[in-house]
Design goal:
Helices cover 68% and strands 3% of the residues. It has 401 residues and is mainly α. The chain has a domain of 266 residues. The two termini are 29 Å apart.
């Protein structure tokens, strides 16, 4: 029995995120050891120690989510929505402004960013509500629109902070879940158009010189190399200096006050400088394994609810990676989006490990059913006590049992 339970674990999804998170602690120490001493007056290991504490907390969430049956999130979806609303409202009332964004709540010496939890919460909610509405999913006003109204209000809270990067990730992940749930393409196109218009309109209301500079700095960095383009140019220097093999871990120069946010949003630039192309490929390969494995679980999962969750969580990690890499390379404006599992940021790390726990729980469910089916084929006379999975034709055409 113990051997069968061990087989249900997806060890690839267990080890890869933990490997990345551990690697992140090492790189955060390398990226922050000088600024911790000179700028913050802390020990060189202070930032890395904080990240390590959050990693331990995140492992606890990972273990909990791995054993907590994912199907129980469906009846809890209304409570999840309520918690998301209350947490974002708390940010507006009691949040702390950091880097021109009121996105954090301090509890003692630790800060929590509730919008990170909304990333997962909105995926769980949309997966639950759209599996319940499969029988009339083509009815736009009855099936599609009501959940989107709730999503829009949550996004408005986040944009008001303002946190355009997180809002963009949630919007894109939500669109992925909605499309995978089986709504008509013309409905999705209409919604995407409205969503983009609303996001742009709300963003324009929050326009400041600082935020405009993020666009000009991304696409014309050398027009103002000492101001708006400074950060991106330093990122270019770090990436170019690293070459194939890098300067050696701890030997980077750009982190010594030249490149700001070196341990968080721009940690990939530090990795590129110190570990070269090999380090970049290692990180991106690990993230690709997580995303592809998550999508594979979504494909083989015969429960529409579990499949939609897996699609949403995998796409969330993939989208966040693309936005972060786009920022450090100048393909996208700098929006303050961290690199998954690697960048400094306690709330982000905990939420990501919690997401991996949910994915592992779905994988365990899939593997358990598969092993039971194999045992039935090997022992057709024995009666196995397990429920048949949902009938399935494709990800977008599953019928609710």
């Amino acid at each position: 029995m113990k051997n069968q339970k061990a087989k249900t674990f997806d060890f690839l999804l267990m080890l890869t995120p933990l490997l990345l998170a551990g690697f992140g602690v090492v790189m955060i120490y390398s990226a922050s050891m000088v600024t911790s001493v000179i700028v913050n007056g802390e020990p060189a290991y202070a930032q890395a120690l904080r990240q390590l504490i959050w990693l331990v907390i995140g492992v606890g969430f990972f273990v909990f989510a791995s054993y907590f049956k994912y199907t129980l999130y469906k009846p809890l979806s209304k409570w999840i929505v309520l918690i998301m609303f209350l947490s974002l409202l708390a940010v507006q009332l009691w949040g702390t402004n950091i880097n021109n964004a009121q996105s954090w709540i301090y509890i003692g010496s630790f800060s929590i960013q509730p919008s990170e939890f909304v990333k997962v919460g909105i995926i769980l909610y949309l997966a639950a509500v759209y599996t319940k509405k499969q029988e009339y999913i083509d009815d736009f006003f009855k099936a599609v629109l009501p959940p989107l109204a709730i999503t829009a209000v949550l996004l408005a809270f986040i944009i008001k902070q303002p946190d355009i990067g997180t809002a963009g990730i949630i919007f894109a992940a939500a669109c992925t879940v909605i499309f995978s749930a089986g709504i008509r393409f013309r409905h999705l196109s209409f919604l995407a158009l409205i969503g983009i218009v609303v996001l742009v309109a709300l963003s324009l209301q929050l326009v400041t010189d600082t935020r405009i500079s993020r666009f000009t700095g991304a696409y014309q960095p050398f027009a103002d190399p000492d101001d708006t383009g400074y950060q991106l140019i330093q990122s270019y220097i770090a990436i170019g200096t690293g070459g194939v093999t890098g300067q050696g871990i701890g030997q980077g120069i750009q982190k010594l006050g030249y490149l700001t946010q070196a341990d968080s949003d721009f940690i990939m630039a530090v990795i590129s400088e110190e570990l070269g192309l090999f380090g970049v490929v290692f990180v991106l390969a690990c993230l690709a394994v997580i995303v592809i494995r998550g999508l594979y679980i979504a494909k083989i999962c015969k429960d529409p609810f579990g499949s939609l969750i897996a699609i949403g969580l995998s796409s969330m990690i993939g989208i966040q990676t693309v936005i972060n890499m786009g920022a450090i390379s100048g393909l996208l404006p700098i929006t303050g989006v961290p690199l998954p599992f690697v960048s400094a940021g306690g709330t982000s790390l905990v939420v990501l490990l919690f997401s991996m726990g949910i994915l592992n729980n779905i994988a365990r469910h899939v593997n358990y059913q598969r092993y039971n089916e194999e045992e039935e084929l090997d022992n057709p006379t024995e009666k196995k006590k397990f429920s048949r999975p949902f009938a399935r034709k494709s990800v977008r055409n599953r019928q609710l049992s």
